[in-house]
């Protein structure tokens, strides 16, 4: 099961822009479907962006400017001004996308309460992502098994052809149960005369 750009961003807790630039820079491979939408293999996604539990840092889900603005109900410009004036700290990732720690966001804008995420929704979504990753791994293993079976069949066919060729070249097979023929017996005159 392939993920869309938005689903992939949601799965790892980042922005669609970050996923898009990872594809464009060649760090991550993805395909486009018939409508032109990106389709991302979960195994490839987790290869480039390790699961949240494997990351280091204080917060597992940094916000982008847009996500931070949505979370507190303001504009991207207001968030950007807070960063530029030093009211709030934020960093840029390798692609130049702002990463805002949620703790820092709610420290700078205390009047807004942090949204309470339903643990059930998060665990259900993670289970779906893990299921998709496992399904992709199973599909890859099945494909590998098919390729190996095809290669084995080809090797067996080549072996049989070489065996047939060897039989033709060497002549009929020799039966090991037959002993070597005795040397021709000499006539009695030859034996006497020597």
If you had to describe this structure to a student in words, what would you say it looks like?
- The structure is a single chain.
- With 194 residues, this protein is mainly α.
- The chain folds into two domains: 1-56 and 119-155, Multidrug-efflux Transporter Regulator, Chain: A, Domain 2 (Orthogonal Bundle); 58-115, Multidrug-efflux Transporter Regulator, Chain: A, Domain 2 (Orthogonal Bundle), CATH 1.10.1660.
- It is 55% helix and 4% strand.
- The chain is built from eight helices and four strands, in the order ααββαααββααα.
- A two-stranded antiparallel ribbon has the order 1-2.
- Helix 1 (5-12) crosses helix 2 (16-24) and helix 4 (65-72) crosses helix 5.
- The longest helix has 52 residues, at 119-170.
- It is rod-shaped and about 130 Å long.
- The N and C termini lie far apart (92 Å).
- Mean pLDDT is 79; it is low at 52-59.
CATH architecture classification name of the largest domain: Orthogonal Bundle
Main beta sheet: 2 strands, antiparallel
**H-E order:** HHEEHHHEEHHH
Q: How many domain modules? A: 2
Features of the shown structure:
single chain; 194 residues; mainly alpha; 2 domains; two-stranded antiparallel ribbon; 55% helix
Strand and helix layout:
Blueprint: H1 5-12, H2 16-24, E1 31-32, E2 38-39, H3 42-48, H4 65-72, H5 76-84, E3 91-92, E4 98-99, H6 102-108, H7 119-170, H8 188-193
Antiparallel strand pairs: 1-2, 3-4
Helix pairs in contact: 1-2, 4-5
